[in-house]
Amino acid sequence: MNAYAKRLLWPVLILLALIAVNIVATGVDFIVPSVNDDGRLGGAFVNILRRSAPLLLIALGMTLVIATKGIDLSVGAVYAIGAAIACQTIIDAPDQTAGGLVLAAVALALAATAAIGAWNGVMVAHFGIQPIVATLVLMIAGRGIAQLVTGGQIPKVQDASPFTELGRGAFLTVPIPIWIAALVLTALALLTRRTALGMLLESVGGNPEASRLAGIRSRGITVLVYLVCGLCAGLAGLIGAANLGSADANNGGLWIELDAILAVVIGGTALLGGRFFLLGTAIGVVIIGTLEDTIINVGLSSQWQFTAKAVVVFAVALLQSPEFRGWVLRPLRRRPEAPAPAQAEEAAS
Amino acid sequence: MPDAAPVRMTGIVKDFTGVRALDGVDLALRPGEIHAVMGENGAGKSTLIKVLTGVHGHDAGEILLDGEPVRFSGPKAAQAAGISTVYQEVNLTENLSVAENLLAGREPRLGPFINFRAMRRRATELLDGIGVDLNVAAPLGAYSIAVQQLVAIARAVDIEAKVLILDEPTSSLDRDEVEVLLGVMRRLAADGTALVFISHFLDQVYAVADRMTVLRNGALVGEWATADLPQNALIGHMLGREAAALEQIERTAAAHHVADGEPLVEAVGLGRKGSIAPYDLTVRRGEVVGLAGLLGSGRTETARLIAGADRADSGSLRFAGRRVGGHNPRTAAARGIAFCPENRKTEGLVGDLTVAENMILAMQASRGWARSVPPARRDKLVAAFIDKLGIRPADPDMPVRNLSGGNQQKVLLARWMLVEPKLLILDEPTRGIDVGAKADIQRLVAELSADGMAVLFVSAELDEVTRLSDRIAVLRDRELIAVLEAEADLTSEHIVDTIVAGGREP
Q1: CATH fold for domain B7-242
Q2: Residue B370 to residue A212, Cβ atoms within 8 A
Q3: CA-based nearest distance A57→chain B, Å
Q4: ipTM score here?
Q5: Where are the transmembrane segments (chain A) (predicted)?
Q6: A348: pLDDT strictly greater than 60
Q7: Residues on chain B touching A202 (C-beta within 8 angstroms)
Q8: pTM, full prediction
Q9: What is the CATH number assigned to the segment(s) B243-336+422-506?
Q10: CB-based burial of residue B59 (10 Å sphere; 0-12 exposed, 13-18 middle, 19+ buried)?
Q11: Per-residue pLDDT tens digits for A322-343
C-alpha cells in the first residue's frame, strides 16, 4: 500500500496544483459544482469530468494492456468503429426513438469492438506479433472499417433518440458519461483486485518467463486484456457519438490512443509492464482534461494546448525518474556515494 | 633483463563490498602461447579478466604491461594498449554487413565519405588472415553464431592485439565450428599473439592450451604447463579434493534410505538436440536423485526436460505410471511436478511482486484467475511458510527483489511446497546464498524426501550432491554417463573419477 501511495503522490500533487491555478484565475466556482436550471450538475470541473469520460475508459483498458508489457494503438480506430456501428444501426431503423433498437445497437457495437480487441490479443499472444505492430494494423485499417460501416457518410442520429442520453443525459443529477466512467473504473478495479487477474497480469508483464514456469496461462490472460481494452474503446466511442449525435469515421477519437498512453504514464504505470495503477490512470486523465481548461483560464490562446500538455507530461516523467530526482536533490543533501552495484554483476557472470 | 611476458598480473586482490572475489591471483601471458584460465562458477575467472581489461579496478597487486605498471580506465583503454576481448555473446550488429562490423569506427574514408570498396578489400584481407572465407558484403546476421564469433575475433585481431582474451567463445557452437575456431586460435598463437582462453569444455582446453592457471573461490591454485597436468588432477584442483574429503565425515547416513518405492519418473531416451543427448533416468517416490557434473555438462538441460520447461524432441517420459504428452510447465504443475529454475531472478521470481504474491503464484496459476485464493487462507499459508522456512524479513508485503539471495530462494521453494507436488526439481538451489540459508535448504530437502516427496537435485557442489542424494546421475559434455548408487562409501572423488573417465570403468 505504501508503494501505491508513493506512486500516486506526484499525479495528485500536480492535479491539485492545476486546480489551484484555475481557482486563482477564475474563482472557487471552478471546483464547486453548480446546479443547472434543469436540475443537473454543471460547473467547470463537472464538465471536465464529463468530457474526460471517453478518454478515461480508453486509458483504463490501456493500463491493463500496458501492464502485460503490451500497447494498443488501435483504440482510436476502435472508438470510431463502435460509434459507426451504433449510429448506422440506429439511422437504418424506421423509428430511431425505439428503446429496444438503441439497446440492440449498443450491444452490437460492443460485441464488435470486443471481438476486435480479442483479435489484437490473439495476434499478440498466439502469433507472437509485437503489440505495437499487431495493433498498428487495426489503427490504420480500423478507420477504413468504420467508413465501410457508414458508407463514407456521417450518420446523424435524431436528437429525440434515447441513444443521445448516453452522452448528454443525467441520472440523479450526475451526467451519464461520469456514471459510466465511474462504474467501469469500479468494475475493473474489482475485476483485477478482487480476483487474481491483477496479480497474474502483473506477473506476466513483470517476468514472462517466470510466469510461464509457474504454470500461468499467460495467453488466455493476454487475450482477455486486449478484449477488455477493445470493449472500453467501443464504449468510449458510444459516449462520444451520443454526445455529438453522430459518428465521424475519420475524426472520431483521433489521436486518443496517445492521450490514453500519456494518462497511463502520468498515473505511474511503467511502459515496461508489471505493476499497474488504475486510480493513477484516472487521475492522469483528469490532469489532461483540466489542463485544457487551465490554458484558457489563465488567458493563453488555445494554440498553447499541445505545448502545455507536453510540458506537464515532461514534468511528470522527470519527477517519476529516480535518476532525475537524485540529480536535482544531490546538491541539497550531501551524502557519501553508494558503492557501485558490482556484486550483482559478478553473481550473474 | 626483459620480461618474456608482455602482460604480468601479480597479487591481484579485488573486493566487492565485503566479499573478496580475488585474493592474490597471479597471471602471466606470453607471446605465442594459449593460456587457459580454469575454475568453476564463481572461482573468479571473469573478475580476473575484468580487472585486466579495466572493467573493475583492483584493490591490491600490480598489472605490468611490457614491464610498465598500468591501470586501464576501461576496455577501450585496454584495447588501445593491445588487449582485446571476445565475449561469449557476440557484441556485433547483425543487420550491418560483415565488412562494416569488422571495420566499424575505423572505416577507410574518402573525405567525409566511407570508401566501401577499400573497406570490403580490407575486410577480406583480415578474414584471410585467420583463414576464413566469407562474402563480406552480406549482413552478419546471415551467418551462424560460429562465423559471427570468428568475425568478432578478426575484428579484435585487426586492433593489433598483443593479447586476445576469449571468454567462453565456444559455448554455443557445434563440434565442427569449434574445430574451426580452435584452428584460428592456434594460427593466431603461431603469429605471436598471447591468448587467454576461458572455457568449461575440458576437451577443447586440452586440445589448444599450452598452459593453465587454476582458480578456486577467488584464490590462485596454481599454474601448470598443460602437459604436466592430467585431467583428473585439473578437476581435483578446480573442485578442491580436500574440501570433498572433509564433507565425507559430515555425511549423515540417516539421509540415505533404500528407496524401494514405485518409480515416479521414468525417462527413456529423453533428449533434445543441441542441448542434451538422449538419456534414461528413473526417480522413485521418496528418493533424492542428484545430477552432478561440471558447468555446461547438461545438468540443467536434463532437469528442464523432465520439468516441461523445454520440449524434448526424442524419447518418452512416464510420470506416476502414465505416459506424459503435451508436456509444458502448466501441465507439469497439474501432474504434480514443481520446478525451481537455476536463475531465480530471471526465471523464478517476479521482482516487482511481493513475497506473498510470489509464494501464491503457482497455486493461483493452477486455480485460474477467476478463483482467487481467499485472502484469509492466503495470509495463513504465507505466514506459515515464512515461519517454517525462516524467511527474513518476515514481511509478506515486501517486494521480493529487496530480499537477499537465500531468502529469495526460500520464497521460490515455498511457492512450490504450497502446492504439495509429487516431484520437486531444484536447479542449483544453493548457489550464491549464505551458509545459513544453504544449510536450511539442504535440511528441507532431506525432510521433504523423508515425507515421501521425490526430489531431483542439481548442484555444482559435489559434496552437497553426495550428501543429499540417494542416487547420483553423472553428466559430462551434455551426456548422462553414469548413475551411481549413493552407498555409504561414495565420495565426491568417485564422481570426479567418473567424470574424468567419461563413463568408462574408472
Answers
A1: Rossmann fold (3.40.50)
A2: no
A3: 22
A4: 0.82
A5: 12-32, 44-66, 73-91, 97-119, 131-150, 170-191, 221-242, 254-272
A6: no
A7: 350, 352-353, 357
A8: 0.74
A9: 3.40.50.300
A10: middle
A11: 778 778 776 665 444 444 444 4
